Amino acid sequence: MLSRRVFLKDSAFALVSLGFAPSFLTRTAYALGRNGRAKRLIAIFQRGAVDGLNVVVPFGEPDYYRARPNIAIARPGSTGDAAIDLDGFFGFNPRLLPLKPFWDAHALAVVHASGSPDSTRSHFDAQDYMETATPGVKTTSDGWLNRYLQARRNEPPSQGFGEPGSPFRAVSLTTQLPRMLQGQAPAVAMSQVAQFGIHAGQSNAGATFESLYADARDRVLGGTGRDAFDAIKMLKGADAARYQPEHGADYPRSPFGQALRQIAQLVKADVGLEVAFADVGGWDTHINQGASQGQLATRLDDFARGIAALVIDLGDRMADTVVLTMSEFGRAVSENGSRGTDHGHGNAMMAIGGGVRGGTVYGRWPGLSVDRRYEGRDLAVTTDFRDVFGEVVVRHLGVRDASPIFPGYAINTARFPGLFA
Question: Do residues 57 and 183 share a domain?
């Protein structure tokens, strides 16, 4: 379908020549020529509340081992399957070994004891609060990433924000559009790059863009509609099975691994992707969680290998890309009677990629002694997740005024964890 590639000359203009010449690619390419290299965010949601204490292990904290006699990750060097030392206090779960090279290269950072100020332990409510970035407020109608897209659209051209352009500006590799991307700004949900439909809003969530508007394409929708249909044709003509990752990247065959593989495919297709989203479940480990082996370890193996493959595959493109991981809350400090963990509070987030000041665990560590735990049982939150999101939006994505993105919360750079210079 593509007769020629997109060429940028002297960062000043773009010449786009395609068999069917969709105008969105012309606009996107010209915007890149004017404004320089576009920044991207890939958000990954670990649904089910991952146990951050067994992901980024505080092996230097004696109370960690007292609270978890059966499921604690062993101290580095004590066994062949122990925590991977990061800084003498924290260590990676051994199943995160594929991510260690990015830590060593100072491209991966952790924000520990991060999360929501709201006390809920409901998965549904906590996920909703994180995706809308309005903890405790159930009436928010849109997600924070959609508000980011709106803010970008409303920034003055002098700040380097041009016409939104591409129908693939925001893409979720899921069957339904997540709350994080719902709102006034267009966003696409697809489970397969070559077979997707554009959701037509919440009132018609079960219908595709094509089925709703095929008869009125030219008469009603005009250029925007034609762009979307051209985009659909282009992606349906792509053969995802024939996509070849670069640099030796090896994606897991799991749904999560294949979702990240398709995100890489979209990035490399130069279709104007700015925000991508993927999620992965299986983290609600109430029973037989395991330590370096077991349920959590199996999920972490898939998680780490998928992200490592994505970063390796994107190569130099990671200079303009940040991968951000999150989960609705953490797990209780003490293991339960079923050798699992119950719903908790504070957790660990990771950021990898462009401009990240990696090789550091950010956030104030509150300690795990009972008197320092949240409500006497959980890791306390010392970094509001909105300060992590806010730093990504301001210092990586370049929004000058982030206040519309985080209603009811005063964004203050002094509270940013320090992920970016």
Answer: yes
How far is CA 173 from each of CA 8, 161, 266, rounded to the nearest angstrom? 28, 25, 11
Contacts (Cβ under 8 Å, ≥6 apart) of 219: none
For residue 57, give the amino acid letter: V
The answer, yes or no, to whether residue 225 has pLDDT greater than 70, is no
Same domain for 337 and 281? yes
* Whole-angstrom distance, CA of residue 12 vs CA of residue 269: 20
Q: What is the pLDDT of residues 333-363, one digit of tens each?
A: 999 999 999 999 999 999 999 899 999 999 9
Name the 3-class secondary structure at 402. Answer: coil
412, burial (CB in 10 Å: exposed 0-12, middle 13-18, buried 19+): exposed
Asked, for residue 212, whether it belongs to a domain, the answer is no
Q: Are residues 55 and 29 in the same domain?
A: no
Does residue 404 lie within any of the structural domains? yes
Residues 118, 122, 123: CA angle, nearest 5 degrees? 105
If one counts the domains in the chain, the total is: 2
Task: Specify the pTM.
Answer: 0.87
Whether 203 is covered by a domain: the verdict is no
Contact 171, 187 (CB under 8 A): yes
**Number of CB atoms found within 10 A of residue 88's CB:** 9
Task: Say which residue the tokens 């909703």 belong to.
Answer: 128
Q: For 83-128, how does the pLDDT look when each residue is reduced to its tens digit (9 = 90+)?
A: 999 999 999 999 999 999 999 999 999 999 999 999 999 999 999 9
Classify residue 198 by burial, with Cβ atoms within 10 Å: 0-12, 13-18, 19+. Answer: buried
Q: Name the token pair of 290.
A: 């395991």
* Residue-range definition of the domain harbouring residue 302: 38-194+238-415
Q: What is the pLDDT of residues 176-195, one digit of tens each?
A: 999 999 999 999 999 888 76
